């Protein structure tokens, strides 16, 4: 894959400054009591994960608040589930129509974290000139929850609650997100995961070291129980006729996901 470098962590652009680390919780060893854990209180006085199969997300949320670097708990805390890296044996393979794709050699249970979308964390305005880059992921937590068609139907035993943690400027979902992840030239296996109109993964915004939703980590979780060797997919969330080329004309891309309710076009 010429011109592409694999990396395991976000590459922060020089003009992007991450917020200072928050103080975190005072739990010791592992967080067990959601009534006293400061991080659990941010999640509605509950832990978003259960300690099952290495940690599983109970329900999709607008944002998941995890324990961070200043918390008293250790790496084994259930509220650090998405921070443990890739746990399943994932394989990149070639498809007849869709190019590269990803599958797992192992069973993945519903609610399990699969991987983080990794690349260069940049300001969206700095990608305006990259017209043919299809690996740019806008960090937009509210739009992630609202914009993915069919997501609630595909979550299996992971349910979607209503969104009520955003207000003020955060409700302006029509505006362009300030930051995005560009995996065009550097990234991890997530950049090879294809779109599907009926996906088996869903996108979840996660905050741990800081609480700025504009700079949330982007995680992919299993929406269903996924058997071995089944292609992994998520809904890219494009609205039809929303992508324009350099000349301003609407661009169109056919969808080859093969789902029964396929929208026939990716955008």
TrEMBL record:
Pfam families: Pre-SET, SET. It is found in: Chromosome. It comes from the Eukaryota. Residues 88-237 form the SET domain. SMART domains: PostSET, PreSET, SET. Residues 23-85 form the Pre-SET domain. Coiled coil: none annotated. Keywords: Chromosome, Methyltransferase, S-adenosyl-L-methionine, Transferase. Residues 251-267 form the Post-SET domain. PROSITE patterns: POST_SET, PRE_SET, SET. This is Histone-lysine N-methyltransferase, H3 lysine-9 specific SUVH4. It comes from Salix suchowensis.
């Amino acid at each position: 894959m010429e011109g592409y470098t694999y990396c395991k962590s976000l590459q922060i652009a020089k003009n992007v400054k991450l917020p200072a680390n928050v103080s975190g919780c005072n739990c010791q060893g592992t967080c067990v009591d959601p009534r006293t854990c400061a991080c659990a209180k941010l999640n509605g006085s509950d832990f978003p994960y259960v300690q099952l199969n290495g940690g599983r997300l109970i329900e999709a949320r607008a944002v998941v608040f995890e324990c961070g670097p200043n918390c008293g708990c250790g790496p084994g805390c259930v509220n650090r589930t998405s921070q443990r890296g890739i746990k399943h044996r994932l394989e990149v393979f070639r498809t007849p129509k869709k190019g590269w794709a990803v599958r797992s050699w192992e069973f993945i249970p519903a609610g399990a974290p699969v991987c983080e979308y990794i690349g260069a964390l940049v300001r969206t305005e700095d990608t305006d000139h990259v017209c043919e880059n299809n690996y740019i992921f806008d960090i937009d937590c509210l739009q992630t929850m609202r914009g993915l068609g069919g997501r609630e139907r595909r979550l299996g035993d992971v349910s979607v609650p209503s969104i009520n943690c955003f207000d003020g400027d955060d409700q302006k979902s029509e505006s362009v997100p300030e930051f995005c992840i560009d995996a065009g030239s550097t990234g991890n296996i997530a950049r090879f995961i294809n779109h599907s109109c009926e996906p088996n993964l869903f996108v979840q915004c996660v905050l741990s070291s800081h609480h700025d939703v504009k700079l949330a980590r982007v995680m992919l979780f299993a929406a269903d129980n996924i058997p071995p060797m089944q292609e992994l997919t998520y809904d890219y969330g494009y609205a039809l006729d929303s992508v324009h080329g350099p000349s301003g004309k609407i661009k169109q891309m056919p969808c080859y996901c093969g789902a029964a309710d396929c929208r026939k076009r990716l955008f």
